[in-house]
Amino acid sequence: MYNKTAFTIDEQIVQLKNRGLLILKSDNAEHFLSHISYYRLAGYWWPMQQEPKDKHLFKTNSKFTDVIALYNFDRELRVIIFDAIEKIEISLRTKLIYHLSHEFDPWWFQQLNIYQNVPEAVKTLATLEAEIDRSKDAFIKEHKKKHADDQRFPPSWKSLEMTSLGALSKIYGNLKNTVQSKDTIAKELGVVNHTFLPSWLQSIAQIRNYCAHHSRLWNKNLPGRPKLLSSPPLPWIINVPKEHEFPLIYIHLCCIKYLLNSIQPQNNLKPQLIALFQKYPNVDPNAMGMKVSWENEPLWMI
């Protein structure tokens, strides 16, 4: 039975010191622990602890300042990645609306016959309907007022503005493979066809949620497994990570960069990452799966 009681901030600091973490008065640990919870920071000091981990003893020279530096690095990394993913989300939304509205009609997303998994499509539409009902956006309110007798959702160019990247990725992935727009969108994003893009979008949507909820990305095992192209039409990486390295962020960053190179050529993702590593030299890039000289890979030279 779990029987631990809550520690005061002073008790938290004493415990960390007793376990070997170097904390100086100038580190202002009281301030940080009053604004960043003990267990949020634990994700950053975990690699600093000796084996066996259940003893919670720190390795020699482990410093509280390094923990805070890692925390700040990760926070700034999420901002950079979130900005890149925003561009992917907006592009995907635009392409879904444009191509499928022309292939079918403005209410294509409500046509259950174009989906592989109808129950999943119904769930996605229910989520979308809830978002539309909650919306205070002027264009949604005006549509409902002007077309009160129309029982359909607003057309895709209005309705899909209410969807998250996660919902958009589900809609795209669930389209039947016979839907022409599915391949068209993949080709326009440089991913050849529908075989590969769904796994990329699912992975990126998960990372987007981590960013939105301020979850750790550094040294984190990510659940997504993007399916990689054997011969990408656009510049890719030569030193491809092995399957066991896929849980780390690097391969996902590569997928984000690849899509971004089609959406926004000459983007600034590479210089932003380089500047971040330079700002925090104590951060180990290996904990993110970064390869040696990653910045010189063909993908990252664009």
UniProtKB/TrEMBL annotation:
Protein name, UniProt field: Abortive infection bacteriophage resistance protein
Organism of origin: Pedobacter insulae
Superkingdom of this protein's organism: Bacteria
Pfam family for this entry, one: Abi_2
Lineage summary: Bacteria, Pseudomonadati, Bacteroidota, Sphingobacteriia, Sphingobacteriales
